[in-house]
Amino acid sequence: MLKRARTAFVVMLLMSGEAIAHDESHHNKSMGHTADPTSFDFQMRGAMERMDRDMAISSTGDPDRDFAGMMIPHHQGAVDMARVELQFGKDPALRRLAQAIIVEQLQEIEVMRRRLAALPPAARDSNGSGNDSRDQR
After folding, report:
1. Does residue 94 contact residue 13 with C-beta atoms inside 8 Å?
2. The pLDDT value given to residue 4
3. Could you count the other beta carbons within 10 Å of the beta carbon of residue 34?
4. How far apart, in Å, do the first and last CA atoms of the chain sit?
5. How far is CA 47 from the centre of its chain?
6. Where are the chain's structural domains?
7. For 50-70, what is each residue's pLDDT tens digit?
8. What percent of the chain has a predicted confidence (pLDDT) above 70?
9. d(CA 2, CA 112)
């Protein structure tokens, strides 16, 4: 139950963070500001942009492959964001949560990678049209 609540919390953070990052990015662009690459905002926005880009895979036609192929970068994005929290955050509870996210998400990434390696090729993989190289990171 705690793991589900934590997952829901992370999803809500990701969703709210994306809106905040978008609004801040729009504000900075319209104001002519350039972001400091060492800032929390810049690093968090970069992590979210990488995650969004890497989750945009072509469908293989295999729900298991597609699920893992999208969830691996999603989990990696959570790890990247948690590392930014550890670098900048001060709240002890959020820092502990960030540490737990890193450990748990990396373990889940490894499980998904192993499952991808064990799954038979998707029907469209045989002609090369459905396999996305990011599935096998």
Report:
1. no
2. 65
3. 8
4. 30
5. 7
6. 34-118
7. 999 999 999 999 999 999 999
8. 65
9. 21
What are the tokens at 72? 């691996």
9 closest CA partner among 132, 126, 119, 98:
98
DSSP string, the chain: -HHHHHHHHHHHHHHHHHHHHHHHHHHHHHHT----TTSHHHHHHHHHHHHHHHH-PPP-S-HHHHHHHHHHHHHHHHHHHHHHHHHH---HHHHHHHHHHHHHHHHHHHHHHHHHHHSPPPGGGGGTSS--GGGG-
Rg (CA), the chain: 17
Q: Is 37 exposed, middle or buried (0-12, 13-18, 19+ CB in 10 A)?
A: exposed
Q: Which pLDDT tens digit goes with each residue over 13-43?
A: 555 555 555 555 555 554 444 579 999 999 9
